[in-house]
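Exercise 7. Predict the joint structure of the components listed below.
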Amino acid sequence: SQKIEQNSEALNIQEGKTATLTCNYTNYSPAYLQWYRQDPGRGPVFLLLIRENEKEKRKERLKVTFDTTLKQSLFHITASQPADSATYLCAPDWGSGNTPLVFGKGTRLSVIA
Amino acid sequence: NAGVTQTPKFQVLKTGQSMTLQCAQDMNHEYMSWYRQDPGMGLRLIHYSVGAGITDQGEVPNGYNVSRSTTEDFPLRLLSAAPSQTSVYFCASRGGHSPLHFGNGTRLTVT
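Solution:
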């Protein structure tokens, strides 16, 4: 079965710095990789999706990379702000649309002012 | 747009009681799923459905039943609650290759 590992349970960084979160997966490569944000007491909210033939995807201060050789995705938040503090989850998607999404355990990011 | 609606938001049960967690979506999504989230364990898939009349088991299905009689609704039933089922439950739906849309969860405590 697939195993999804996110680099650390918690990450603390200073405001203004770049946060980098890692998502590694085993076995066969997904067609897509999705990233979600979860705030306390709320359901996860979709942020970005990257396809296997895309090396990089950007949205405002967010950047996602996808390395199918390393079986890894990196999620960057540049110029981080305290409002970016949340748990971030990755989910490889094997792309049929009906395939269940399996999530990593998440990384809790705290941006300190 | 309501999106995915879960009820109730909070519930306390005694061991052995039964209950149904409700989930409804208004986006005409074929795919719906249930997850539980526990500290340190992340989101774990309980059951999922790819359309009305079709359900399948996820990673942790024991102790839970589901049915899908309409596209909109996907209730999760606990037939005999156990303390190990204390958790936060999330329902989610998707249409085709779109991302998952989550509800805001039901926090269940079993004493």
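Discussion. The interface with chain A takes residues 4, 30-31, 33, 35, 40-43, 45, 48, 50, 58-59, 90, 92, 94-97, 99-105 of chain B (CB under 8 Å).
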